[in-house]
């Protein structure tokens, strides 16, 4: 697994061992960041359920000003920190260990949120209220949700506007904003 484009192009990323993480493939990451390209430069990004950090690191590589990574798995946290160091993004990257729903309650001011939760566990429903809380998202913010194409977990609040969706095999990608 490698960074696809930008300042850290070609840097190899480690992946946590075991089945607790499912890193986004390079092909899907390329598609995600092609769609997000006009919004990345200078953005404050949240990579929730970060795992290896591939999504947030790709954003930093392509010009995001800062990225916050949330992960609770200890093995994944170790790999995430090594990947950040390997890409040279120690300064603009912040790693927060813990349950995504709880950690998100202490954060605000994001331009882009990258969500790739474990599939089919109902985690999107748990964090949706926090995403919609006052100040969490900046005006014009985008939320990218990666989920299973077989059992997609979608946002349910009527304030969301679905801008775009794509399916790549077993993976579905959704891009949302506040309507």
Net shape: globular
Following the backbone from N to C, one meets helices and strands in this order, namely HEHEHEHEHEEE
Instruction: Write the CATH architecture name.
Output: 3-Layer(aba) Sandwich
Number of helices: 5
Q: Indicate the CATH class.
A: Alpha Beta
Radius of gyration: 15 Å
Structural class: alpha/beta
Please, what is the average pLDDT? 93
Uncertain segments: none
Q: Beta-strand percentage?
A: 25-35%
User: Largest sheet, described in full?
Assistant: 7 strands, mixed
CATH topology grouping: Rossmann fold
CATH evolutionary superfamily: Vaccinia Virus protein VP39
Query: How many strand elements?
Result: 7
Question: Ends: how far apart?
Answer: 35 Å
Helix content: 25-40%
Integer count of domains:
1
Spatially, the strands of the biggest sheet line up as 3-2-1-4-5-7-6
Organism: Candidatus Avidehalobacter gallistercoris
EC number: 2.1.1.171
Keywords: Methyltransferase, Transferase
Protein name: 16S rRNA (Guanine(966)-N(2))-methyltransferase RsmD
């Amino acid at each position: 697994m490698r960074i696809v484009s930008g300042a850290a192009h070609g840097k190899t990323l480690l992946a946590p061992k075991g089945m607790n993480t499912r890193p986004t493939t390079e092909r899907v990451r390329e598609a995600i960041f092609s769609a997000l390209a006009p919004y990345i430069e200078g953005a404050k990004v949240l990579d929730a359920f970060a795992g290896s950090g591939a999504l947030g690191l790709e954003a930093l590589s392509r010009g995001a000003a800062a990225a916050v990574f949330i992960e609770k798995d200890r093995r994944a946290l170790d790999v995430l920190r090594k990947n950040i160091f390997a890409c040279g993004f120690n300064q603009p990257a912040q790693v927060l260990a813990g349950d995504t729903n709880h950690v998100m309650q202490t954060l605000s001011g994001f331009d882009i949120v990258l969500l790739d939760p474990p599939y089919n566990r109902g985690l999107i429903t748990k964090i949706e209220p926090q995403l919609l809380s006052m100040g969490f998202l900046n005006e014009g913010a985008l939320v990218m949700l990666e989920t299973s194409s077989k059992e997609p977990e979608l946002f349910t609040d009527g304030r969301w506007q679905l801008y775009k969706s794509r399916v790549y095999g077993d993976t579905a990608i959704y891009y949302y904003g506040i309507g």
